[in-house]
Design a protein that fits this description.
Number of strands: 10
Largest sheet: 8 strands, mixed
Distance between the termini: 27 Å
Strand content: 15-25%
Shape: globular
Number of helices: 8
């Protein structure tokens, strides 16, 4: 059953929708930077990983050339960095806001695979933040765990109507389920965990709530506005469900309700760190919304333990 919002919360959500409709209009008409179609890889297997990585680096090189010719110097520089020797992209598409899946570690032989699912305002132009978090996590998990930075959907803007509904998450869910299947085709014995930040937690919940669910070992929701589910038990997955929130995270002030406004359902329901949701709540320290994968933080230590499968060592909130 959905939680009914009181008048102040309805007013706050309505204001958020109205502001979100107005503010992003100026960016909507920006022309797209030209980019090539993704490399035609087919279904990638473990022996084919080196060839897939090489093909995606070549694609990034071509995308950088096109962006440079278009006059998009910053995008071109970012793409050249992605094309550098040693970068391992399992998927790469520089069109629009971008779709990528970058692997850190030895995916074919890892015992554990952790997939980072990012939240709003993540794109090729801001990708460095996602990669920095993936690198920090991989440094904590060790060589037997591969980390994948999965930018596999069009993330909503932080100030936009899309960030207030499950629409983008519902659209992303099939791609996330398919990606997990692809990982199993590459490494059938590895245990997979999903580490889902902010709006990414809505994506993970949508993936787990589908007809096939998500066959993963752990799902960690952090900095989450809610998931669209009332309880962890409503997610169709055998996974352990974790939740964490830093003491300095502004997301705590977002109304954890869902209401009908302007013909749409706005908001994501129960707070994942609340007793009523039923997740295993881990200690996340005093950090803010962007600090969960900050080196040295309690949240990073606990997320690394979840990713490694060392769940008895996770410190609880």
């Amino acid at each position: 059953m959905r939680i009914r919002a009181g008048r102040p919360r309805r007013t706050l959500l309505a204001f958020g929708v109205a502001a979100a409709v107005v503010i992003p209009v100026s960016g909507a008409a920006r022309p797209e930077i030209p980019a090539p179609a993704p490399a035609a890889l087919g279904r990638v297997t473990a022996p084919a990983l080196p060839a897939a990585y090489a093909a995606n680096r070549a694609n990034a090189t071509e995308a950088a050339r096109l962006a440079e010719g278009y006059g998009a110097a910053e995008r071109a520089a970012a793409l050249r960095a992605m094309a550098a020797p040693g970068r391992q992209f399992l998927a790469f598409d520089a069109r629009g806001t971008g779709r990528t899946a970058e692997v850190l570690g030895d995916l074919a032989h890892a015992d554990r695979v952790a997939v980072l699912v990012p939240g709003s305002d993540t794109s090729l132009d801001t990708y460095g933040r996602l990669r920095a978090g993936a690198r920090a996590l991989h440094a904590r998990t060790g060589p037997r765990t591969a980390v994948v930075a999965w930018l596999g959907y069009e993330t909503p803007g932080t100030v936009s109507p899309a960030v207030l509904t499950t629409g983008r998450a519902d659209a992303a869910a099939p791609a996330l389920r398919s990606f997990v299947d692809d990982l199993r085709g590459i490494n059938a014995h590895a245990r997979v965990s999903l580490l889902c930040h902010s709006y990414g937690s809505v994506v993970c919940a949508a993936g787990a709530s589908g007809p096939r669910g998500l066959d993963v070992a752990d799902i960690a929701l952090y900095g989450s506005p809610g998931t669209g589910a009332d309880r962890a038990a409503d997610l169709r997955t055998p996974a352990r469900i974790w939740a964490g929130r830093g003491a300095g995270d502004w997301i705590a002030d977002v109304p954890h309700t869902s209401v009908g406004l302007f013909g749409a359902t706005v908001g994501f329901g129960t707070d994942p760190v609340s007793d009523g949701f039923g997740a295993r709540v881990f200690a996340a320290g005093d950090g803010g919304h962007s600090d969960y994968l900050k080196p040295g933080s309690p949240s990073l230590r606990n997320l690394a333990r979840i990713a490694r499968g060392d769940t008895t060592e996770v410190s609880r909130a």
